[in-house]
Amino acid sequence: MGLGGKRARGKKQNSWIRSVENEALLPSAKTLCIKAQLLNWFAERPGLKVIVYSQFIDMLKILERICGVEGWGSVMYYGGMSLDSRNKAIEEFALDERKKVMLASLKSGGIGLNLTMASKVIIVDPWWNFSMDQQAFCRVFRRGQEQKTEMTRFVVEDTIDTDIIWMQKQKQTEINQVMAEPKERTVMDLMKLFGPVGEDEAGNHFIITEDKD
């Protein structure tokens, strides 16, 4: 894609985000569940702080709108922000009692952060590698945490979410088998961890990627 194509796509995305910021939002299964979970937590502990992770900035923008309507102060934290802006967001989240929710992208929010001011975590959309979810949760579950911690993941049945959860479980099962069996592993054994293995006419092996579409 050329530079012009990238600019066009960027303008289209920015236009969509502006519409999210300015127009009424229709509820979805996930946003309703996230709102209900936050309402319950804040009813139990008004001073609670929560981190909500998503892979998609658009989803974070939608959740920012919901927080605003409900009167929950929130901060954004994602890779597209400057380092100063991200540091400021963490500082506000830690020190301002009105900032109850941090809306963070899964990847940027799971790296090298100490977020023990929060004790609850919501994963909006699962990543194919469960260790990414665990890493994000460990930002609150680490030395210095004095509260009970909890992570909630929302999975919509019969969607890509369920496929990703199945992949997570399958990969974890295979990893556990590899670690439990004390035999030497071949290259073929290792390739099979990532998917079905095929062979071309020259006898070279390759991993088969499945595309249901």
From TrEMBL:
Q: Provide GO CC annotations from the record.
A: nucleus
One term of GO molecular function: ATP-dependent activity, acting on DNA
Q: Is Repeat among this UniProt entry's keywords?
A: no
Listed name of the protein: P-loop containing nucleoside triphosphate hydrolase protein
* Listed GO biological process terms: DNA repair
Q: Domain Helicase C-terminal: where?
A: 34-194
* Organism of origin: Lineolata rhizophorae
Lineage, uppermost ranks:
Eukaryota, Fungi, Dikarya, Ascomycota, Pezizomycotina
What PANTHER family does the record point to?
Answer: HELICASE-LIKE TRANSCRIPTION FACTOR, TRANSCRIPTION TERMINATION FACTOR 2-RELATED
Q: Would the keyword Ubl conjugation turn up in this protein's UniProt record?
A: no
User: Which UniProt keywords are given for this protein, alphabetically ordered?
Assistant: ATP-binding, Helicase, Hydrolase, Nucleotide-binding
Matching entries from InterPro entries are given as: Helicase_C-like (IPR001650), P-loop_NTPase (IPR027417), SNF2/RAD54-like_C (IPR049730), SNF2_RAD54_helicase_TF (IPR050628)
**What Pfam family does this protein match (any one)?**
Helicase_C
